[in-house]
Amino acid sequence: MNKKLKTSLAFAKNILVTGAITETSRKVEIEICKHLPREENKLIVEFGIGHGNITREILNTISLSSKLYAFEVNKKFCDYERKNISDERLVIINDGAENHQKYLNQEIDGVVSSIPFSFFSKEKSQKIVQDAYNLMRQNTHFSQVLLTKFNFKKFQEVFTKHYVVSLKGRVTEYVIHCEKTS
């Protein structure tokens, strides 16, 4: 069975966790990493790693001295990534995005997320976005892929500076870029 079909089946079996039935497009991988810092010694956080297509793009974008903390609730996805991505900069954490503060004790230089906010309660969604915002350095970005415009508001309530990119393909995917400004 080819990788794309395996991924689609794994996503479909876990639709309430992944919020997707396939990986994001290559266009999204590039767009969502657009605002990541390329300078040395940065801390990047990823919420939702799936089968790692965005994770790989993050690692290709950040410097060799930076770190990527990737949070994923699906243990099978974590195990898959541990086997398929060998990079000392990557720290895979089998836990939800809402618990990221338990693992991070320094400021974040960027957040990339593909978690399914549509399946979360309003309170859980707000907590994830607000807690990430609180840990972010000034002038850094939180970029989120969404499949509907429904969830834009939760980001607009926290971030004053934001914009949306619409990427048309088999399915229209949206990336919202939010900046923490001083």
User: Assembly type of the shown chains?
Assistant: single chain
Shape: globular
CATH domain class = Alpha Beta
Q: Quick one: CATH superfamily? A: Vaccinia Virus protein VP39
What is the helix content?
A: 25-40%
User: What's the number of extended β-strand segments?
Assistant: 7
Indicate the CATH architecture.
3-Layer(aba) Sandwich
- The chain-level mean pLDDT equals 89
Spatial strand sequence of the major β-sheet: 3-2-1-4-5-7-6
Structural class: alpha/beta
Number of helices: 7
Tell me the major beta sheet. Answer: 7 strands, mixed
- The CATH topology name reads Rossmann fold
Poorly predicted spans = 7-12, 14-21
**What Rg, in angstroms, do the CA atoms define?**
15 Å
Topology:
Layout: H1 3-13, H2 15-18, H3 26-32, E1 43-47, H4 53-61, E2 67-71, H5 75-84, E3 90-93, E4 110-113, H6 122-135, E5 140-146, H7 152-156, E6 161-167, E7 173-180
Parallel strand pairs: 1-2, 1-4, 2-3, 4-5
Antiparallel strand pairs: 5-7, 6-7
Helix pairs in contact: 3-4
Give a summary of the structure in a few sentences.
The protein has 182 residues and is α/β, with parallel strands linked by helices. The chain is built from seven helices and seven strands; from the N terminus they run αααβαβαββαβαββ.
Describe the structure.
This protein is of the alpha/beta class and 182 residues long. It has a single domain (3-180), classed as Rossmann fold. The chain is 33% helix and 22% strand. The protein is built from 7 helices and 7 strands; from the N terminus they run H-H-H-E-H-E-H-E-E-H-E-H-E-E. It has a 7-stranded mixed sheet with strand order 3-2-1-4-5-7-6. Helix 3 crosses helix 4. The longest helix has 14 residues, at 122-135. Residues 7-12 and 14-21 have low confidence and may be disordered.
